[in-house]
Amino acid sequence: MTIEQAYDVIPRQVLFGNPEKSMPRLSPDAKRLAYIAPVNNVLNVWVGNVEAGDYKPVTNDTERGIRAYFWADDSRHLIYLQDVGGNENWRFYGVDLDTGVVNDLTPFENVQVQLVQQDKHFPDQLLIGLNKENPQVHDVYNLNLNSGELTLVVKNPGNVAGWLADHELNVRGALAATKEGGFDLMIRNSANSEWRKVAAWDSDDALTSGPVSFTLDGKSLYLTDSRDSNAGKLTLFNLETGESKILAEDSQYDVGSVMLNPDTYELEAVSFTRARNEWQVISPKVEQDFAVLRGIHPGDFAVTSRDHADKTWLVAYMADNGPVSYYSYNRDTKQATFLFVNYPALSNYKLAEISPISFTARDGLTVHGYITFPPLSEHKNLPMVLNVHGGPWGRDTWGYNPEVQWFANRGYACLQVNFRGSTGYGKNFVNAGDREWAGNMHNDLVDAVEWAVEQGYADPKRVAIYGGSYGGYAALVGATFTPDLFSCAVDIVGPSSLITLIKSIPPYWATFLNVLLKRVGNPDTDEEFLKSRSPLYKVDNIKIPMLIAQGANDPRVKQAEAEQVVEAMKSKGIDYEYMLFPDEGHGFAKPDNRLKFYAAAEKFLAKHLGGRYEE
Questions:
Q1: Is residue 310 a contact partner of residue 263, using CB atoms and an 8 Å limit?
Q2: Angle between helices 440-454 and 470-481 (to 10 degrees)
Q3: Where do the structural domains in the chain lie, given as residue ranges?
Q4: What is the rounded distance in angstroms from the CA atom of residue 255 to the CA atom of residue 272?
Q5: Which of 13, 300, 307, 516 could share a disulfide with 30, CB 3.0–4.6 Å?
Q6: Which residues contact 266 (CB under 8 A, 6 or more apart)?
Q7: Is the pLDDT of residue 3 over 70?
Q8: What InterPro entries has UniProt attached to this entry (predicted)?
């Protein structure tokens, strides 16, 4: 039986088009439900009465679609974020559900908004960060949702990367960047008190530590903290005595999500992302709820929304071989009601299962990841796509991934590697990636491919390297540093020169710059080293076909990163395809652009790996 006979080609529209419905959120008074769904193929927010089910769109975005929104605690206002053309200068827009009026709450050009804090006891207020006065850092403002009035609360001295407010909406915590690539935790007792340093994380602990929340009385902080341990553990830190109590820890994995009670701010549960996401229940008050939730669906779950009474939870379940399923859970009756799945059309097709893997890298480090095979295939001698995650300070996880299913459906094994420098595996693992871009981070990818070949899974003559952002850089590195290993490469918004990447970061990354300099290299003092790790300077080595895709408005990886390597390939007569999207940023938000890219990528891979594609 051939792969064509075994199962249908999943249309790109089903995999990469807009969801039918997604991201449901319950209003704090539990009377209304919101979700994101398309209007004329553009994602907008819909709201309806839970009892009546009279859902209708309450926003009218006609450009990029809305991907992030939340309820204000007054149950009347709904806030969504939007930028222009992918420039990441986010604005807050407020929808007044009583009047239907949509207001631009932060109407400032070239300014980015961040949510600092909201609290149910101040239902018509938000604390927000704006880099209005200084594009490099965010000051904190109080936003009154009824009047739209903005009041400056605290000015950024120039080094604060993040702010933390207590449950009276007093800004009392600040994460200050240090020159060495670490962070100091600054605290004050009240809005009028002096700031004092209560904790410091050096660069070794910077990516595995940080503040989570104040306790209700404001006298202690929940912290993730990897000092005196390998992995980031959850601790309760007393601000008066300096004493620290460990609440949850794992020797290898960092604490992931932290679930606090919305009234008492007591710890209820924490998650660790191992091969899959696993919850550790701390509070007996939610033990039965978690036991029930574990039995509803076999996927990994997260509580995404809670009403003010804390009687109704919305729960999302992630499976590897199906869409995201959403349920409403009643804590009184312990009953769950199915709401919807985000991509119902997926149920018409055979999807692949994702399998966790691990292997030993050449220097003895254990590296984890995932492999996915085409459904019903023999797991032998397959063409393979090495799909490299972005960040690099992130990681691949188990669960539905449209690209992974796309590769598997087209006949490829898909290999995902959490190479050193990936987060979640403790500080020793993330720090092993320092100054290893195109070094040992790339060696981990090479070792992973060789592992897959040794297992008999992959045909060594038909391996592609593919990725976005850091993954795009890795694809360029694969084509220039190890061109004999791969038969083709796909780079999506990947930097080609580490020097120009670091020198052209967006202004609001200023407090993160020292982390980059420490972990990647300093263009002022390490120019030759960074050149030696930059694909741009090894273009002569390219001998495989390349597809490069770029957003013209990308604030992180500028258009020049793609153009300079394209120009170098053009001058040397090297085979390439280049796609520039004038109305996109760091990734492709518009469905038409996404589908155009995936159509080109699919044809490119079929040509060079021999898989199938949708005409």
A1: yes
A2: 70
A3: 350-609
A4: 5
A5: 307
A6: 216, 260, 283
A7: no
A8: 6-blade_b-propeller_TolB-like, AB_hydrolase_fold, Peptidase_S9_cat, Peptidase_S9A, Rhodanese-like_dom
Residue 615 token pair: 């005409």
Cα–Cα distance, 463 to 200 (Å, whole number): 45
* Structure confidence by residue, pLDDT tens digits, 422-477: 999 999 999 999 999 999 999 999 999 999 999 999 999 999 999 999 999 999 99
Any idea which residues carry the catalytic annotation? 469, 554, 586
Q: Tell me, what DSSP letter sits at residue 133?
A: S
144-200 pLDDT per residue, tens? 999 999 999 999 999 999 999 999 999 999 999 999 999 999 999 998 999 999 999
Closest CA to 238 of 263, 260, 217, 207: 217
- State both tokens at 142: 């109080």
In percent, the amount of the chain with pLDDT more than 70 equals 99
For 536-590, the pLDDT digits (tens) are 999 999 999 999 999 999 999 999 999 999 998 898 888 899 999 999 999 999 9
What is the rounded (10 degree) CA torsion for 471, 477, 482, 486?
40
- Residue 362 burial (CB count, 10 A): 11
Which of 222, 236, 216 has its CA nearest to residue 166?
216
Q: Tell me phi and psi for residue 256, to 5 degrees.
A: -100, -105
Q: Do you know the residue count of the chain? A: 615
CA angle in degrees (0–180, nearest 5) for 152-153-155: 80
Report residue 31 as tokens.
């009377």
Element (H, E) at 47: strand 42-49
Asked if residues 303 and 270 have their Cβ atoms less than 8 Å apart, the reply is: no
Q: How far apart are the first and last CA of the chain?
A: 22
Cα 106 to Cα 108: distance, rounded to the nearest angstrom: 6
